[in-house]
Every structure is written in C-alpha cells, then in structure tokens.
Amino acid sequence: MTLTLNDAFSEGRYKGFRKFDPVQFAAGLSEEKVQVTAGLSEERWFTQKLDHFNGADSRVWKQRYFVNGTFYKPGGPVFLMIGGEGPANPAWMQHGTWLTYAKNLGALCLMLEHRFYGKSHPTADLSTDNLRFLSSRQALADLAHFRTVTAETLGLTEGKWVAFGGSYPGSLAAWFRLKYPHLVHSSVATSAPVHATVNFPEYLEVVSRSLASENPECSLLVKKASDALLERLKDPKTYDNITKDFNLCSKLQLQTEMDSAYLLEMLAGNFMDVVQYNEDNREFEGVVGTNITIKVLCGVMSDSSLGEPYARYAAVARLMMDTFSIKCLDASYTNYLRDMTNTSWDGPAAGGGRQWVYQTCTEFGFYQSTDSPNQPFSGFPLQYQVKQCAQFYNISAETLAEAVAQTNEYYGGYDIHATRIVFPNGSIDPWHALGITRDITSDLPAVFIKGTAHCANMYPARSQDLPQLALARDHVILLLQQWLKQ
Question: Among the options 95, 114, 185, 454, which is catalytic?
Fold first, then answer.
C-alpha cells in the first residue's frame, strides 16, 4: 500500500509488513457487456455482513471496491485483486502486471478493500471490542459473499474467477482458493507468508544476506554501528549527542527497555524497508524514496569519509529523513503507545497500524525480532513485540501463541492441499522465509525469482527489470492460460 515514510515512522514500522504493502481493490457493472464507467478510480460500495459466522447477527456495513471493465470480453474471466492492511489504492486499477494479464485474457478487473482498512469501516470505531470482527477469516468470507452477489448481479456466474494478492493479501488469495474452491478457480499468491509464527527472526537474517549480496562488508558495518549505538545507550551522558546525531524531535529519554527497543527498531527499519522493496517499480503508487536502494545504503555504510560506522548509520537515518521530508524523528515510545491506543477512525494509527498489529496479536505473530545471532541488529527482542499486544489490546503472550497455532491449524501453514495456486517470491524479500519457494505439486507451483524483492512481479514491467523477473511474469500468465482451460 502506499504510505509515506512519515506515516511509516509513526505506525507502519510496527506493521508486520513494514510500510503498508502493495495491493488494494475493486467491482459492479451491468450484464450486457461490462460497461467502462467514467473513472477507473471511482469508488463503489458493497453491502457486506458484519459477522459471517453468526447467523443471528444481521448487521451490515458498506465495503469499498473498484472496477475496470476496459479489457473485458464476454465469457472472459473475472480477476479479483484482494485488499490488504492499508487503504485501497485505485492506482492498481490502471497499473500493474495483472492488467497486462487482463488485456491478454479479456478479464474484468475488480478490487475489494479489506474490512477495517481505508474507507471500509464496519464499526463506529477501532475499540478492541470492535476489532474482534477483524480477521483473515472474516475477510475471506467478505470475498466469498462479494464474489457470489457480484457474479449474480452482473451475470457472471459462469465466469471463472481468479484471485490476486501480494504479501498478506497474497496469503488471502491462496486461502481463498483453499477454503472456497467452488468460488475461485485459481489464484496468484505473490510474496505470501502462509506460515504464521510468533517469532520471525529469519526476517532480519534475510535482510543481512541481502545487504551482503550487494557488498560482503555491508552487513558487518551495520552490525558494528548497531553495536556501537547499543553501547552508547547504556550511558545517559551520550543522550544529547544521540539526539543530535539522529535528529530526534526531543531529547532522548530511556525509562524502560521499551523506549530503547523502539528507537533501535525504528533505525533498523531504514534498512528493513529498503531491502524489502529494493528496486521495486512502485512509483505509480505515489511512493517516494524508490531511488534509495540497497546499493545506496551500503554505499553510505562503506563511506569512511563520514567517520566510524556509527556516524555512517546516523547518516543513513538522516538520508531517509531528507528523502521523506521528515523534520525530526519521534523516538518516544510513550507517544507511540498513545497513538496506537487511540480508537478513533481519525486517530494517527487508523490508517492501518492499530488494525494490523491487532491481526498480528490475534492471528499471525510475524514479529521481526533481533533474537537470531545471524543478523546485524540488536535491542528489539521478541518480548518487546509481545508486550505491545498486552499494552494495546490486553492480549497475553499465551493467548497470542495459541492464536498463531490456531491459524496454522486452520490454513495448514506450509502444508497446503489445493490446486491451481501459483506462489511467486523474490530471493531478496525477507518474507520469502515464510512462503512457498518450491513446487508443492505441479498444480501448486512456486516461482522463486532470484535478485528481486517484495511483490516485484506485480509491479509494472520496465526495461531495466532483471530477465528472470520478466520470465516469471510470463510464466504466471502461461499457467493462468492453461488453468483457465480446465
């Protein structure tokens, strides 16, 4: 999704998927031929059930969707882009690989926003009590109901539906096919973390390898810098300098371990975000900073003219702030806690931060801790992430662990039994560690793309794309052509 790093600093950092991920939503037309309406970014609204799993609850709400009927040919398939943990971005109705596929296959394109994100507000506010209606299961039931009603309304009951999604929506695309095989014919589940886990230290291990793939020294220099910062944080006399070095909004104050973990995670996040989206073609989404790549960060970390590694680490932080026009860094955990517990739809974390962290606490975990020795960062252990579940939503560590186990029991984790789902992943993307990177069966193929990052195959093609990325995009449409004949 498209957040500026401004937002990312205030809330995206704590979302399992760093800044909101790429994928947002769509539908509604008339039988004859799907007419192309004025704006591809025109918002439409679908009457959705609040609770799909309680027949006695008749409450409804309005869910936002978008439509592009430009490429539709009668009898063609229906492509459904699944919304994720942020506002629906109508730019996806005009850009992206899925539209190239739609043109080739004569597909109608719909995009449905995920409940509780963007303008799709099922409840009056984001109280913890109301967030009980936020889950991947309710989201899948939303998709099922939307698909059923839309197919009837538009006379598309005979059409074959194909689900698309990247990142968390990639998982939803796979699970939609798994749980509702009678409603969706096939799925493209890009960069999809299908295995839930409370602790996800492998994320930073992949970050380390991705930095080292650019320059073997890079990860070691980051480690030296991170260790030096950790050492300084032990001595309050250094706080004035740290405040200046990293351009903090107010003088550094560390009352608890949560305070230091928050600062350390925020600074590590500069590297995490850049690695995750390295060289992805995201400009059309309105994203800034796509020019900051692993190569750029490692260039700064290798520049001895800037001083010791600690000084270079601070230079990276300032570079990121300049790039995203951030005046100063708010490193206050107290402020973050205040923002994340604000339950208003107008609150500072209502763009998705409060909702997504709730989903991590009640379904997925995915906590990118520093608990592995095989990565360069330190200071934000699992315990720091788990405590947030208690502080924000009163969810204990035990409840979290049980919820994550239940997610894998319900969906099967890596052990997916279905057909016609393709799983593209990029080797640079830290999320591939929880995804399918080898064929399960010939009907559940993986497409592992060396040298690419998160959801790279979903973004529009361009001349400088790696040849293996172009081949991966081609491979997916060949699979779809083959499957749509089945």
Answer: 454
Q: Distance (Å, rounded) from C-alpha 169 to C-alpha 83?
A: 6
Nearest of 170, 145, 148 to residue 50 by alpha carbon: 145
Choosing from 167, 186, 210, 332, the catalytic residue is: 167
Distance set, CA 459 to CA 2, 30, 420 (Å): 13, 29, 22
Residue 36 scores a pLDDT above 90: no
Side chain identity at residue 272, one-letter code: M
Q: Tokens 């400009």: give the residue.
A: 283
The pLDDT tens digits of the residues spanning 322-376 come to 999 999 999 999 999 999 999 999 999 999 999 999 999 999 999 999 999 999 9
Is the torsion defined by CA of 224, 227, 231, 237 positive or negative? positive
Given 3-state DSSP classes, what are the helix, strand and coil percentages for the chain, each rounded to the nearest 5?
A: 45, 10, 45
Q: Is 48 helix (H, G, I), strand (E, B) or coil?
A: strand
Active site residue 330: no
Residue 37's Cβ-count burial label (10 Å; 0-12, 13-18, 19+) is: middle
Which residue from 432, 390, 427, 434 is spatially nearest to 408, judged by alpha carbons?
Answer: 434
Please tell me the pTM assigned to this model: 0.93
Q: How far apart are the first and last CA of the chain?
A: 33
Burial label for 443, CB within 10 Å (0-12, 13-18, 19+), is middle
CA distance 82 to 71: 19
Q: Is 167 a catalytic residue?
A: yes
Could you give the C-alpha distances from 24 to 64, 92, 430, 472, in angstroms and in order? 10, 7, 21, 22
Question: Does the annotation count 454 as an active-site position?
Answer: yes
How many CB atoms are closer than 10 A to CB 338?
A: 13
Give the model confidence (pLDDT) of 257-298 as tens digits.
999 999 999 999 999 999 999 999 998 888 888 899 999 999
User: Which distant-in-sequence residues (6+ apart) come within 8 Å of 202 by Cβ?
Assistant: 372, 430, 433, 434
φ, ψ for residue 460 (rounded to 5)?
Answer: -60, 145
